[in-house]
Amino acid sequence: MLSNKQFIKQTKILGDATRLAILQMLARKGSLCACKILEELHISQGTLSHHMKILTSSKLVSCRKDGKWRHYCLLPETLCQMSSFIRDICTSPVTCETSACSCDQNSKK
Q1: Mean pLDDT by 10 residues, the chain (109 residues)
Q2: CB-based contacts of 54: which residues, under 8 Å, 6+ apart?
Q3: Full domain range(s) for residue 56
Q4: pLDDT tens-digit profile of 32-51?
Q5: What is the pLDDT, as a whole number, of residue 108?
Q6: What is the 3-state secondary structure (H, E, C) of the chain?
Q7: What does the alpha-carbon distance between residue 49 and residue 20 come to, in Å, rounded to a whole number?
Q8: Would residue 48 count as lying in a domain?
Q9: How many domains does the chain have?
Q10: CATH number of 61's domain
């Protein structure tokens, strides 16, 4: 289970449009060579390397070397942990009742 700190770190990683696009590509197409990612996103090799380092170090993506090429694959476990984190918040049995708010009681005076 993710801690609040880990969840915040992961959401910051996913908050980048390029990284999110890479994850979506990998989810749709499976394992992809870096050259295919470069072709589709129209970014430089250096920019891709930067994003892939972040994604692999955060365990969102795995990397397999094949000679001079690298093949990337989505690791769904971390995303599933993030989903569970959000689900736990969404399924909380506590409901919001405005009548229980002390602010409302003070404004009626």
Answers
A1: 93 97 96 95 95 97 94 94 93 70 59
A2: 13, 19
A3: 4-87
A4: 999 999 999 999 999 999 99
A5: 56
A6: CCCHHHHHHHHHHHCCHHHHHHHHHHHHHCCEEHHHHHHHHCCCHHHHHHHHHHHHHCCCEEEEEECCEEEEEECHHHHHHHHHHHHHHHCCCCCCCHHHCHHHHHHCC
A7: 15
A8: yes
A9: 1
A10: 1.10.10.10
